[in-house]
Amino acid sequence: IKDEDKGKKIVTVLTHSMHTLSTTVSFIQKNNLTQLELLASEFFNALYVISGWNMASKGEDSHPFPLSQAEEQINQDLFLQESIWDTCAKFALNSDIKHDLAKRVAALVSIKGSHEILRILIALWDKFTTHQKLVANLMVMEILLQDMSDRLTDDASFLEMLSSFKTLNLDTFPSNGQTLNDIFDNVFELKRKLTSGVTYNNYYTLKKWLPLSELNAYQTSFEELIQSALSAAPIQQASQIELVATELHMITLSAFQEIAIEEFYNKAWSSDGKKECAPAIGRFIALTNRFSSYIIKCILETGSPERITAAIRLFILIARQLCQPKLNTGPNLAAIMIITGALSSHPIDRLNDCFDKLDPETQEVWEQLKLLVDTKFNSKWQRACYENYPDHVPHLGLLLADITFCYDGNRYIEGNISESHNNHNNLLETIAAPLYRFYQQQYVLKNIQPSITTNVSNVINQEITEDDLYILSLKIKPPVLRLSNDAIHEFIVSLKEHIGNGVIPVIDLPDTYHSEKKGVYAIYDFLQENLFLQNNTLNKGPSSQSESSSSHTDTKPATDDDKLSTPSQTLSASTSTNENTIASRRELKLLMTDFLNLTNNKLHHDRTTLPRQYINPLFFYKTVMQTNLKSETNSMARSLSKN
């Protein structure tokens, strides 16, 4: 695309098509899930027929798990085999098995993966009772149903093992085995029909195209949408807040839907191979961090304290909108956490004056949002969202924390068979709840296909460091540096660092009074005197300190004319044979000259944004301008002095 107008028209058509296709795919997906539920019920009824309609039966010849190795050679794999054996033996074919077995399958898959579970079922088949073989069929069906990303439909190794499993069905159940196998085939056919359909392919093609840089440049700018919302009147702002919230809802929902349950296996997201084992979790975490950094940058770059307060208010209202997003879903806790995390970060939180200026209604909303995401009482309100809104988009960090606690609290211990066995069983029990919760949320949200209409993907691809954000915050509310003779070198290092970042710090001279005219030179005197004394103490020994002090006090005090000549004259007035002292003074001279230039430029180019609450810098600014600048600047200094 070379013509800009043509590019915008093409992207408009594609965006409209994307919205239409997402609606259609959502409808098809919802219909698909309904048909899968019908197939699952049909499969369950077929198992009842085979079991002789004895719903509570656990098998007539149930026996304990047969150990294939010596007791001292028992390992984690055997623990897993025993868990699968017990699952098939102890679950009765009744109405409760659907929910309980689904939780157990979710736990087993997360520990070892779908392929390994199916392999073990095939390996144990000959030793299974009839009842265990029926439950094994139900476990395989649950594995297929919980494959929300439809990865198994094109997995050759899994399909090959499933074919072997279906052969075992035919050999074991000559009359009804084919019925069970046909339902397996229908489930796969239904999943393939969705993923191979023209509508589905067009939707996912557009989903990949629109974020590309060639098309992204012609999309509606997300950053312009934010700026427009900041400057809009209250009535217009309401609709723009809804648009921003919808985009944030869509992109977090899309990232959540991409996560497969296998990515939680053995905390894969925190392992060395996390990019290969848990790519979607990694992308979701990166999305959260980058979006949060973007919001911080967006707020700090607005400039004045009044506009910063307006930006904070805007994002609080966006977070409130995400509590009741469009598309009839529950709260989007993932997006709300992005905003509250940004507003609670140190670069924003330190600007407490801006929060104090919020209107009472917005402050109340902010307090409620903080309560919602608070981790106290085991994240009480986030868990309440799950109980009341099954279709909410969860905060992934809470799920990862729950799974981490399950693994860390139930580890495999080499050499301790008994405790390792207990830990393995406890892990299956505890990890089942959070993983089944994840499966249910993905199941409910699968029939919602996101449609993103702006170039919001550009935002999440920006690299913004924490240091850059903190420097932006310091430029709005300067840091306070305390000048004291017991930390003189630390002061110089800090001052040099701030000046290098373009930040003008507030300098506090404790227990000292100086006239406005001499304020800046008080820093020179203080630094020179203490540098001279400290360097001589370090290099000549303790006895030289009194000599240095007496020589300094005997020196005739400089006149006002001497004081107000130039910084360089003041810094070179004293002499010392100590090379370290001379080097320190040269560095100090350059440092203070940079400081004077920086303050001069700050007042010259940004007079209106000077924080009035910081009085110390004004002393230095005015002194510099009164002694070194032209008459025009002097009049501005006098005006500042009156204020």
Plain-language structure description:
The chain is mainly α. The chain contains 31 helices and 2 strands. It has helices spanning 4-50, 76-90, 97-112, 114-124, 130-145, 156-172, 177-196, 198-209, 213-216, 222-231, 234-257, 274-277, 279-300, 305-322, 333-343, 346-349, 352-356, 360-373, 376-388, 396-409, 417-445, 456-460, 466-476, 488-500, 519-540, 543-554, 560-563, 567-571, 579-605, 616-628, 631-642, and strands at 480-482, 506-508. The chain has a two-stranded parallel ribbon. β1, α24 and β2 (506-508) form a beta-alpha-beta unit. α2 (76-90) crosses α21 and α14 (305-322) crosses α18. The protein is elongated, with a radius of gyration of 35 Å. The two termini are 57 Å apart.
The share of residues in helices is 55-70%
Mean pLDDT: 78
Biggest beta sheet summary: 2 strands, parallel
Tell me the structural class: mainly alpha
Strand content: under 5%
Cα gyration radius (Å) = 35 Å
Trace the largest sheet across and list its strands: 1-2
